[in-house]
Amino acid sequence: MQDADARYQAMLAHDRRFDGVFFVGVSTTGVYCRPVCRVKTPRRSSCTFYESAAAAEKAGYRPCMRCRPELAPGRAHVDAVGRLAALVVDRIEDGALDEAGVEALATELGISSRHLRRACESELGVSPVELAQTQRLLLAKRLLTDTTMPVTEVAFASGFASLRRFNALFRERYRLAPSDLRKQPRAPRKGDAEAAERHGLVFELAYRPPYDWPAILGFFGARASAGVELVSEGRYARTFRWLSNEGWLAVSASDDEARSVLRVELSESLKPAVAPALARVKRAFDLAADPIRIAGDLGKLAEQRPGLRLPGSFDAFELAVRAILGQQVTVKGATTLASRFSHRFGKPIATPFPGLERLTPTPEHVAEARPEEVAGIGLPLARAKSIVSLAAAVRDGKVSFGPRASYESLVTQLVALPGIGEWTAEYVAMRALGWPDAFPSSDLGVLKALGETSASKARARAEAFRPWRSYATLHLWESLSALSKATATKKGGKR
């Protein structure tokens, strides 16, 4: 939606489909808002529209205290330039510019710094440095509003190397001191007291409705590795590691569905890693997706479950190991093996959740294990060798889940390893990269749902689903699940 008048109409309707797609600067107040903001809608003549919060701040606007632009969902892209810009946003959220500069980020992405700057300017209206500054400030604003962290901790957790620089930039952009923002009253949220008992920090992450929370929670729940993950009482919890920071996180849906947010709780030990932890939640739960657009393009296939999201991963190596463990066994069997694997090779950790007690094993640790040790969890020796080979390849950089990885390159790297076939590689690449147009054509469920007998025929059929073949895959799997439930109900009725 590029037309300014159309964007104004979306504002008038408070249309959540466009939340995070654009921001509006209001000249009469000097404030910029999300299109879903509930304050009195300004006149059209007072509105200027921007592609990003950073572009609005570059133009001199400060964030609205009511709708809080830092809570807006991200944007998903399918074109090359848009995906590059989204990748830059992801890496900056991970702190890529906190220690190094634009040149280093460009090298990491395998492009020139000029191309990197051009992509950011084209899609977001700002340079990478300006984007990073806004990301840090908005994270700081969120921490000041939603936590009781000391201002000094907020500054460093937001990526600032200097408290003085943080205070100066915050005052320059937002026209108040960080401590002044904290003085403003905040209504208590449901669950805050419970989180405080667990020494947790509570955040909210927005999405564009519809969002099929039961489906994605059920997906993760069926595959949860006991010790590392736990799904219970409508909540997904897991242990989490970022560099030297170790802790836990928990994700649940808001009781108020109309607010379109997920509730995220982080352990206090993850204070220095708030930004990357929240970024991982966004990707794992596919919060940047545009479900209306996806369902519209997929047509009849998506009619029954338009809110399906692509389940991502918190740790790509963990996902790849899980996929190998799942070869030729049931989902339940693979889950049992994954739990044994994490208890054998994962580091112990204390959490307030009973049974959540292991960090996921690292490739560096697993690469040093003998295949016979891995086989000891109940695996054939050949499959154990595959896991050790994968760990060594990730450790040595021969398999990369990093920002330069494309779906095609990752599949190629994975199938070159012993014991990893086309299906395993396609499945891992689809979820690890959050690739919207992946298609595991050899998947038996996909073939059955399409009524095809060969991967080549399935690929030909799937051309109609571009650029959303990953989502089409989810809908095909879901159609089989629905058929299975309907059949079971019918048989039960006969008895």
From TrEMBL:
For this protein, the record's PROSITE patterns field holds: HTH_ARAC_FAMILY_1, HTH_ARAC_FAMILY_2
InterPro entries, from UniProt?
Answer: Ada-like_dom_sf, Ada_DNA_repair_Zn-bd, AlkA_N, AlkA_N_sf, Alkylbase_DNA_Glycosylase/TA, DNA_glycosylase, HhH-GPD_domain, HhH_base_excis_C
Cite a single GO BP annotation.
base-excision repair, AP site formation
| Record domain HTH araC/xylS-type: where | 82-184
This protein's GO CC annotations? cytoplasm; protein-DNA complex
Q: Does the keyword Transport feature in the UniProt annotation?
A: no
Query: Which keywords fit this entry according to its UniProt record?
Result: Activator, DNA damage, DNA repair, DNA-binding, Metal-binding, Methyltransferase, Transcription, Transcription regulation, Transferase, Zinc
| Residues annotated as signal peptide | none
Give the protein's cofactors: Zn(2+)
Q: Which chemical reaction does it catalyze?
A: Hydrolysis of alkylated DNA, releasing 3-methyladenine, 3-methylguanine, 7-methylguanine and 7-methyladenine
- List the NCBIfam families hit by this protein, alphabetically: PRK10308.1
Instruction: Give the matching PANTHER family.
Output: DNA-3-METHYLADENINE GLYCOSYLASE, DNA-3-METHYLADENINE GLYCOSYLASE 2
Q: What is this protein called?
A: DNA-3-methyladenine glycosylase II
Organism encoding this protein: Labilithrix luteola
